[in-house]
């Protein structure tokens, strides 16, 4: 593919316009320019062909399933302050749990909970866990869940869009393009007054001990994290209620049966190997004392119910990966695959988008997640 000079591909079509097109975010005039350009420009045809081929080469596809931003860098850094770490420190102090600040910071970096630009959603609460508290993490929570947690005496950290929460929308604009929907901040919920329509928060970036916001304003900011909530409590004081991620909206392509079977069979092989290492062996009937089980046999010899269980587990893993924003690229002996693989292997995985924290690659000019133009 030729280098794009000064960001212009052909006629009125710029790199920025094309990026907006792939995101479904162009005007009718821009769309017409792209259609006209495809008809006249071999270079633009090549770009479009590669884009479509990449989509086809993805092994997994869904009917526009909602993606959960589990690796989004929600706990971002502002003026040197890691908001996630500060929220956890706040909770530890409230509960009278002693800690060493330097040790927390070292632990966060050593365990890769905290990265250069913040903490991923799924790592919020790790310090609380390490110091003996019980922690739950859930997407798609309701406001009633907040009320219930407060009544139960639990501490609550939520991920929000900081600009929407505070009303500083100018902080969310880049080159006159409203970005939004980026969970870039964490706060601790202290109280909620539904009669007055207000919610009280501890905000690490605020000079105040606490801040009060209208509930509706908070709701808008919270929705950008898909209503992600982390609760902390004393272990043993909360009834465990499993809440797996809902995968009902993920509809995969038909061409995954081999992948499902491979995962299911290999999972059984790993299980059997571990059981044998712990002293278990084959027996016609299960015997815990003698460590005998009829399931230490090749996958094909398992009962249908056991094989179905492994297949269901494998399918759940595949769907969960898609739900969390990952795709699996099928191997093809083609130049496209070779180019994609070379691109990934030579990528600079330390580079991140300064706006939303997404991983950036060598030569990337716009962020895939938020559309930020990257200064090179």
How would you describe what is shown here?
The chain is an alpha+beta fold. The chain folds into four domains: 5-57, no CATH class; 73-234, Cathepsin B, Chain A, CATH 3.90.70.10; 257-323, Globin-like; 335-376, no CATH class. The protein has helices at 15-22, 28-40, 42-57, 83-94, 101-110, 126-130, 143-151, 162-166, 215-223, 257-277, 304-323, 335-345; strands spanning 8-10, 13-14, 73-78, 81-82, 114-115, 118-120, 133-138, 155-160, 173-174, 177-178, 185-193, 198-202, 211-214, 229-234, 281-282, 292-293. A six-stranded antiparallel β-sheet has the order 7-14-8-11-12-13. A four-stranded antiparallel β-sheet has the order 4-3-6-5.
Spatial extent as radius of gyration = 25 Å
Distance between the termini: 20 Å
**Largest sheet, strands/sense/barrel:** 6 strands, antiparallel
The count of DSSP E runs of length 2 or more, i.e. the number of strands, is 16
The CATH superfamily of the largest domain bears the name: Cysteine proteinases
State the helix count. Answer: 12
Taken together, the total number of domains comes to: 4
What is the CATH level 1 assignment of the largest domain? Answer: Alpha Beta
Q: In sequence order, what are the helices and strands, one letter per element?
A: EEHHHEEHHEEHEHEHEEEEEHEHEEHH
Helix content: 25-40%
The low-confidence parts are: 1-6, 56-60, 169-180
Q: Which strand order do you get reading across the main beta sheet?
A: 7-14-8-11-12-13
| CATH 2nd-level architecture of the largest domain | Alpha-Beta Complex
Strand residue content: 15-25%
């Amino acid at each position: 593919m030729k280098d794009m000079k000064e960001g212009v591909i052909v006629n009125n079509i710029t790199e920025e316009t094309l990026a907006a097109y792939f995101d479904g975010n162009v005007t009718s005039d821009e769309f017409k320019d792209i259609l006209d350009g495809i008809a006249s420009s071999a270079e633009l045809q090549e770009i479009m062909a590669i884009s479509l081929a990449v989509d086809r080469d993805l092994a997994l596809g869904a009917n526009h399933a909602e993606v959960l931003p589990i690796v989004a860098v929600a706990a971002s850094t502002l003026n040197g302050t890691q908001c996630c770490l500060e929220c956890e420190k706040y909770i530890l102090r409230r509960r009278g749990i002693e800690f060493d600040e330097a040790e927390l910071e070292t632990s966060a970096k050593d365990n890769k909970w905290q990265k250069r630009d913040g903490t991923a959603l799924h790592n919020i609460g790790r310090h609380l866990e390490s110091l003996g508290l019980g922690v739950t993490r859930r997407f798609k929570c309701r406001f009633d869940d907040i009320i219930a947690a407060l009544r139960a005496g639990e501490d609550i950290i939520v991920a929000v869009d900081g600009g929407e929460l505070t009303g500083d929308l100018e902080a969310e604009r880049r080159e006159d393009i409203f970005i939004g929907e980026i969970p870039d901040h964490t706060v601790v919920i202290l109280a909620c007054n539904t009669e007055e329509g207000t919610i009280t928060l501890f905000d690490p970036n605020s000079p105040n001990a606490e801040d009060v916001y209208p509930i509706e304003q908070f709701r808008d900011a919270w929705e950008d994290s898909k209503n992600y909530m982390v609760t902390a409590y004393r272990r043993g004081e909360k009834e465990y209620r499993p809440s797996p991620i809902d995968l009902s909206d993920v509809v995969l392509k038909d061409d995954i049966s081999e992948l499902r079977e491979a995962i299911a069979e290999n999972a059984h092989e790993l299980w059997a190997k571990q059981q044998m290492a712990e002293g278990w062996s084959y027996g016609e009937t299960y015997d815990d004392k003698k460590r005998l089980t009829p399931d230490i046999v090749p996958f094909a010899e398992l009962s249908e119910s056991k094989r179905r269980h492994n297949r269901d587990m494998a399918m759940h893993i595949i769907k969960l990966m898609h739900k969390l924003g990952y795709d699996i690229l099928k191997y093809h002996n083609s130049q496209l695959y070779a180019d994609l693989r070379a691109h990934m292997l030579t990528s600079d995985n330390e580079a991140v988008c300064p706006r939303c924290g997404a991983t950036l690659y060598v030569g990337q000019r716009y962020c895939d997640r938020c559309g930020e133009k990257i200064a090179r």
